[in-house]
Specification:
By secondary structure, this protein is an alpha/beta fold. It is built from eight helices and 23 strands. The strands form five sheets. Strands 7-8-6-17-18-19-16-20 form an eight-stranded mixed sheet, with helices on both faces. It has a six-stranded mixed sheet with strand order 10-3-2-14-23-22. Helix 1 packs parallel to helix 5, helix 1 crosses helix 8 and helix 2 packs across helix 8. The structure holds flavin-adenine dinucleotide.
Amino acid sequence: MEQFDHVVVGGGAMGAATAWQLARRGHSVALLEQFDVAHNRGSSHGTSRIFRFAYRNPFYTQLAIDSLSDWRELEAETNEILLEQIGNVDHGVERSINEIAQALERFNRPYELLTSEQAQERWPGMKFAPNVIFSPDGGRCAADNTVKALYRRIQELGGEIFTNTAVEDIDISGDMATITTSGETFRTPSVVVAAGAWVNKLVGRHVTLPPLTIDLGQPTHFQPLEQFADANLWPSFIHHAVDDDHNSVVSGGAYGMYTPGEGIKIGKEQTGHFVDPDHRDFSIIPEWMNATKDYAREWFPGLDIESATAVTCLFTNTPNTDFVIDRVGPLTVSSPCSGHGFKFVPHIGKLTADLACGSTQSVEHWRFRKN
Ligand SMILES: Cc1cc2nc3c(=O)[nH]c(=O)nc-3n(C[C@H](O)[C@H](O)[C@H](O)COP(=O)(O)OP(=O)(O)OC[C@H]3O[C@@H](n4cnc5c(N)ncnc54)[C@H](O)[C@@H]3O)c2cc1C
């Protein structure tokens, strides 16, 4: 039987960041991942993700501000560039843009309000709805490269990583947890479960999570036309198309960014294709591909529409897109963060490690549900 101070189950971005934060505190840590590093069956794969302070909900603006220094620490430790502040643009529904401006104002972050004509003059490969806000310190973070860098750093710090190791059971008895895989058993005073779309399968009998939906996403890359090939013409972007109270990232529109080597990524909001992560078809949904092409034709004059290529991934969402990060006894859970967690990865790792080391959760709306 293997013994560690902490066993982290799930080696996507959140689990790897937690294991890194624990290892750099000098704790012995094992990271167990059912597939390989940076595999494409969960939520953390691909080249890039949006980084932004531009949230309608100021809580997440503050969280992104708190995350920035943790990104820089991770970059310094791994000697890699993982976060590029190339700027991000939000446009669309007036109320959404006003709320973003208020959140940025509140934390004294720079921003610029533009008309759609001014925005199109600056970024001619895109079209814009009437209300536009530019946040110069948003941008993009690396996805696969962040996960790979975390794995490397965990091992340099003495942590042990077990890939292709599926956890079959987690048993909690008093203040100890026993974790069983097909080949080994681990006993620990602290198990952290960051199992993405699989989280409920692993911890559902120990804690009550809010209802989670596992929804397919199909981000699509387009090549820029020759005259729009300059990377400086492409900020990260979010189009808020629907006026609602939902804290959703996209609200009926789309998000995306320039991804070096791959083109412009467009993720159009397309919901309602719920899946079981263990029984999933990886094929591309042709209707969604056509809808994304139609969207790009209307809003992106700078793209070669026929160059479109897509991948699928999993969004695991709580009803209001908040996170669940909490602890009971030896069990700490870090949820997959409702489709907008990547920008906080090193900081979520720190907060989760704090809990695993004995802190209590101070963010009320991230707690487990009471039975
Ligand atoms: C298409 C898409 C676009 C996104 N865009 C953005 C964006 O622009 N900006 C942003 O901030 N966020 C974005 N996000 C959200 C962000 O990517 C996620 O919040 C984050 O990647 C979740 O990471 P995770 O580690 O919780 O989940 P995962 O990456 O799914 O990792 C969970 C891991 O647990 C492992 N596991 C599960 N069960 C077991 C078991 N029994 N034994 C061992 N291992 C197990 C899985 O194999 C998996 O590797 C996006 C997400 C998607 C899907």
